[in-house]
Amino acid sequence: LEYLAMRQAEAWRNHINAYCQAALVEEGHTPREAAAMLRGMKAAGMHDLMFARGVNLTETPAWQRRGTLVRYGTYTKEGVNPRTGERVTVQRRGVVIDEDLPLFPAPEGRAYLFSVLGP
Q: pTM here?
């Protein structure tokens, strides 16, 4: 669980850096100049940099802020029974991609991880 929480924190840092880098390049800086401007800047400073440009990073899509979790699990699929022609809903097992993740260090995040990964 700690590993996944660490990876999620890394996703947040990458998210902030990517948005800031893209904004500075869009303003006319070279990628190298943008990287130099961001070097040593704390997350709060980068957040302020984007907020001043009208972007609230906490309102970006969850998968960008927290990453995605790819796992093997069950999902619901709708189909048609070939014998009767009626529409049916079935459970299947396969790859599931979760893009709306809770924060893993929070109690609801830990509960989510225990529910999908087991104890």
A: 0.77
Q: What is the DSSP letter of 14?
A: H
76 bridge partner residues: 91
Tokens standing for residue 26: 């869009």
Collapsing DSSP to helix, strand or coil, 69 comes out as strand
Distance of alpha carbon 26 from alpha carbon 22, whole angstroms: 6
Interatomic CA distance for residues 6 and 84, integer angstroms: 50
Answer yes or no: are the C-beta atoms of 15 and 47 closer than 8 Å: no
Rounded Cα distance between 71 and 98, Å, is 8
Q: What angle do CA 75, 80, 85 make, to 5 degrees?
A: 160
CA distance 76 to 9: 30
- Tens-place pLDDT, residues 93-107: 999 999 999 999 999
